[in-house]
Specification:
Layout: E1 15-16, H1 21-40, H2 63-82, H3 91-111, H4 115-118, H5 120-128, H6 143-157, H7 160-163, H8 166-187, H9 189-195, H10 198-206, H11 234-253, H12 256-263, H13 274-306, H14 312-319, H15 324-342, H16 345-351, H17 375-404, H18 408-434, E2 438-439
Parallel strand pairs: 1-2
Helix pairs in contact: 1-17, 1-18, 2-3, 2-5, 2-8, 3-15, 5-8, 5-9, 6-10, 6-11, 8-9, 11-13, 11-15, 13-14, 13-18, 15-17, 17-18
């Protein structure tokens, strides 16, 4: 048995910066701004683009991959219900909250949206929902997926101590499978998978970054699916922004500033009290509103400065694809140490998946190395990654505004408010990432 719990998003020793943190932040912002000046002078091919479906039809699942994943999911749920309830010794919490919740999105953002071809939920939905009993209400849009993503994110970030228990994770999986089957029976598999099933919508969004399109519209290659806007509706844009909000909220909870603030809260709002969970949910919702207001305000400024046609929501829908690489970069940067440390749990869990004393592969006694990845490497990797994804965001926004504006000159003017947002977000992202792992140098 593994002694001691490997905590969620645990970090190793803090890295003593050789220079003040503000110099790193200013340098990163300067690189993004220099990239903007470089791409600003580059012409954009202003051909008309045929509008593409934001969420294309979900391909049917091939027989064996989906059924195989369904069988694996059933075995994992069995292990969670009837195996050990020690989180580091049961394979289910690691498989669900680390591999599926974090690892799969990262792989899809790199490769493309392969999920419909292997999804056990696709198998369940198409087995139960061969035909629709009721038409899917247009007013619902993707709001069910928005709410479900918010609930899953709260499970990881707010109710982590309870949601990561093996039996609780198993019940979440079973309940969601039953819910998917019920909604597919009512609205039909195609309609529910396309708009309501959270993981189909989530992975279709991440898949826009990946190299392969797997039948989805867009240019092959990295970021090829981001050259077309999202559907200009509040529900779809809220879903995309939640990708950014969830990782930012996770990072906020890890900062020393938050821990100091938390210590000043009254007793009813301290960790372990019901009031604290309610308080965190309210902060999560508030942060979502703040991000909405910020990006909506910048989109309004872009529209006004560039005198763009269409609504503010339409401009925002064209700009928000440039935010997806940033959400991906922050997802990877924030979870790198977590994946490296907690991912090692799979070594001993594969030998004893239920924590009952088995040693199938002879690795049941493996202890995770908490210092596997040096903190200095994590910090400099984060810098390069965050700068890189913001540079990609600048290039994507340049392409969109160059096509959306009436003239090239108006397109260039429209980019100035957005570059202010990108530079500011680059610096704030790095500051947030730095808080748990680095400290200011003290050497003379």
């Amino acid at each position: 048995m593994i002694h001691g719990l490997v905590w969620l998003h645990a970090f190793g020793t803090r890295y003593d910066l050789p220079a003040p943190l503000y110099l790193y932040l200013l340098g990163a912002g300067a690189v993004v701004f220099a990239t903007f000046l470089f791409v600003l002078s580059r012409p954009v091919l202003r051909q008309a683009r045929t509008p593409a479906e934001d969420l294309p039809p979900v391909p049917p699942t091939p027989a064996w991959p989906g059924w195989l994943m369904a069988a694996i999911g059933a075995l994992l749920a069995y292990a969670g219900l009837f195996g050990t309830q020690s989180v580091p010794d049961s394979i289910l919490p690691t498989a669900f909250w680390l591999v599926f919740w974090i690892g799969v999105p990262i792989s899809i953002a790199m490769v493309g949206d392969y999920w419909p071809y292997v999804s056990p939920l696709n198998v369940i939905a198409r087995t139960i929902g061969g035909r629709a009993r009721r038409p899917y209400p247009r007013t619902l849009g993707v709001w069910p997926a928005v709410i479900l993503f918010f609930l899953f994110a709260c499970g990881e970030l707010v109710f982590n101590a309870m949601a990561t228990l093996p039996a609780a994770t198993a019940l979440i999986m079973i309940a969601y499978a039953v819910f998917t089957a019920s909604m597919s029976w009512i609205y039909g598999a195609e309609s529910w998978l396309r708009r309501g099933e959270v993981f189909c919508v989530l992975f279709a969004t991440w898949g826009r970054l990946g190299w392969f399109r797997f039948g989805s519209p867009g240019r092959p290659g990295f970021f090829g699916g981001l050259e077309r806007p999202f559907t200009p509706t509040v529900d779809r844009l809220t879903f995309v922004l939640l990708l950014l909000v969830s990782v930012s909220f996770d990072g906020l909870l890890a900062t020393p500033a938050w821990k100091s603030f938390r210590a000043e809260l009254p007793g009813t709002l301290q960790p372990g009290q019901p009031g604290y969970a309610v308080f965190l949910i309210l902060v999560f919702i508030l942060l979502t509103g703040v991000i909405w207001a910020l990006f909506g305000g910048f989109a309004l400024a872009v529209k006004a400065v560039g005198r763009l046609d269409g609504s503010v929501l339409g401009v925002m829908a064209g700009l928000v694809p440039s935010v997806v690489p940033i959400a991906f970069g922050y997802l990877v940067a924030h979870n790198l140490d977590y994946l490296a440390i907690n991912g090692q749990l799979l070594i001993h869990q594969a030998s004893d998946p239920m924590g009952t004393g088995l040693n199938i592969f002879g690795a049941a006694g493996y202890e995770p190395n908490r210092n596997l990845v040096p903190t200095a490497f994590i910090w400099y990797f984060q810098i390069l990654l965050i700068i890189g994804v913001h540079v990609a965001a600048v290039v994507l926004a340049h392409g969109y505004l160059g096509r959306a504006a009436r003239s090239a000159e108006q397109g260039k003017r429209a980019e100035w408010p957005w570059i202010a947002a990108m530079v500011g977000y680059t610096m704030s992202s790095l500051w947030l990432l730095a808080q748990p792992i680095v400290q200011e140098g003290t050497k003379g």
